[in-house]
Amino acid sequence: MNTGITTFSQIIDFLPMHEFRKCVQRYNGNHKVKSFSCFEQFLYMAFAQLTYRESL
Length: 56
Prior knowledge:
single chain, mainly alpha, 0% strand
């Protein structure tokens, strides 16, 4: 059983969240979003890319 922090979480910690939020706000990325925010989509796409998935 893994009791430490995951590798994916360690990679995401390097993401400058302030810059990400600023870009989302600048381009109005979360306009009319009900449940699937830009950040969640980014996390899913980053995980898929890092684990060599062909689709979500």
